[in-house]
Amino acid sequence: RLAGVSSSTVSHVLNQTRYVSPEITQKVMQIVADTGYHKNRLACSLRQKQTHTIGIILPSLHAGTYYGKSLEAIERELSAHGYNLIMKASYNDPQAEKDAIEYLLSWKVDGIIIVLNNYKCISEITETCQRCNKLVIVTLMQSDAWLVKNIENAH
Fold first, then answer.
1. How far apart are CA 136 and CA 55, in angstroms?
2. Mean pLDDT by groups of 10 residues along the chain of 155 residues
3. Is 126 in contact with 136 (CB distance < 8 Å)?
4. What pLDDT does 80 receive?
5. What is the per-residue DSSP string for the chain?
6. In this predicted structure, what is the pLDDT of residue 24?
7. pLDDT at position 105, please?
8. Adjacent-strand bridge partners of 112
9. From the centroid of its chain, how far is CA 107?
10. Distances (CA, A) of 73 to 64, 67, 69, 70, 80
């Protein structure tokens, strides 16, 4: 309304989906700056059926651990591809791992990375994630080697 143009024109300016004259683009962008407007990411996610968010469940979030260093590398790579990261810690507790998966699924994440030290519940976790048809990487820490399960979903 403030720009005197239709909401679809504003949408085209903000999303750069169609040509809009430089004058109108400048006017809309000035109003965006003046009002402090931000896109509603939740609404975009609902419309696109994609959140651009990946969940990760680690045994520990302590920055000084191997997991902390790995987390930094994962976050940088995801960010470079336009994804955000939600982190949860399991503290090697199988119930906490299951709860974290349910939490991440409730946020409609596009995928889940799970690092497990506990072999007891791997089949149940893998089954849960496959049932939800999510991009899933289940990893197990075994001495110095990472084993990747469900690799067909890792593309």
1. 10
2. 86 88 92 85 74 87 70 89 91 85 88 74 68 63 47 45
3. yes
4. 94
5. -TTSS-HHHHHHHHHT-S---HHHHHHHHHHHHHHT----HHHHHHHHT---EEEEEES---TTSHHHHHHHHHHHHHHHTT-EEEEEE-TT-HHHHHHHHHHHHHTT-SEEEEEES--TTHHHHHHHHHHTT-EEEEEEEETTEEEEESGGG--
6. 92
7. 87
8. 55, 136
9. 9
10. 14, 10, 7, 5, 11
Tokens representing 80 are 């470079």
Look-up: residue for tokens 């903000």? 14
Q: What are the angstrom distances between the C-alpha of 151 and each of 6, 39, 132?
A: 46, 34, 16
